[in-house]
Design a protein that fits this description.
Layout lengths: L1 E2 L9 E4 L5 E8 L14 E4 L5 E8 L6 E4 L3 E2 L2 E3 L2 E3 L6 E4 L1 E2 L2 E3 L2 E3 L6 E7 L2 E3 L2 E3 L5 E7 L2 E3 L2 E3 L6 E4 L9 E4 L2 E3 L11 E3 L5 E4 L2 E2 L1
Parallel strand pairs: 1-3, 2-4, 3-5, 4-6, 5-8, 5-9, 6-10, 7-11, 8-12, 9-13, 10-14, 12-15, 13-16, 14-17, 15-18, 16-19, 17-20, 18-21, 19-22, 20-23, 21-24, 22-25
Length: about 210
């Protein structure tokens, strides 16, 4: 187990400009003292990576996002059987990533969203259990991404949100075979799936309760 010092103001694990890196069977404790956000204090921060993998990794108690992959040129990063919980920010956040995979993971009890994807696309989020976050999954300016066979429940606001800042920046996503229930814990009138702006996408075979 890697445990952050109480005085740490940066990430516990950081890598930049890395290719084909594997982090496996690792536990990272951000050691947050309270729920106050501290920018930059990630559990794992991987910047501008190609084909990096997190497999059987547990990250919890970070002062900001538990896991962040970001930076131009980030491609083919994979997260399999990740457990991300109790962050002050998002459980998992990807920015400027393409052709990514997040699968078979447990993402819960985060102050931010379970999974946030911004400014990327051509990825897959599948077979995850996502619960007790703000939104379960939040896509913003993300295209041609598949959200498949996830279980999203008891999130504060919505199971899934798809948004965009300009026309066509969130087109051609697929939402299929997901189970979405008991969300809207704070705002009971809000929908299980929110589509913000003008976009084209496919929604099929969804169980909502």
């Amino acid at each position: 187990v890697l445990k952050a010092k109480s005085s740490l103001s940066g990430p516990v694990i950081y890598g930049t400009l890395i290719n084909s890196t594997l982090l496996e069977s690792l536990s990272v404790n951000g050691n947050k003292p309270n729920t106050t956000l501290l920018s930059g204090s990630y559990g794992i921060h991987i910047n501008r990576s190609i084909r990096s993998q997190l497999i059987n990794v547990v990250v919890f108690n970070s002062r900001y996002h538990n896991i962040l992959f970001d930076g131009a040129g980030s491609i083919q990063n994979i997260l399999i059987r990740v457990n991300s919980r109790a962050a002050n920010g998002d459980g998992i956040r990807l920015s400027q990533n393409s052709d990514f995979l997040i699968t078979e993971s447990e993402i819960g009890s985060n102050e931010g969203n379970g999974i946030t994807i911004t400014s990327g696309g051509a990825g897959e989020i599948s077979s995850n259990n996502i619960y007790q976050n703000t939104d379960g999954i939040n896509l913003f300016n993300v295209r041609t991404t598949r959200i498949l066979s996830n279980r999203l429940n008891t999130n504060d606001l919505r199971g899934i949100t798809v948004g965009l800042s300009a026309a066509r920046l969130s087109d051609s996503n697929i939402i299929s075979h997901n189970t979405i229930f008991d969300n809207n814990q704070i705002m009971a009138s809000w929908p299980a799936i929110r589509l913000a702006g003008t976009l084209t996408l496919s929604i099929e075979r969804i169980l909502i309760s």
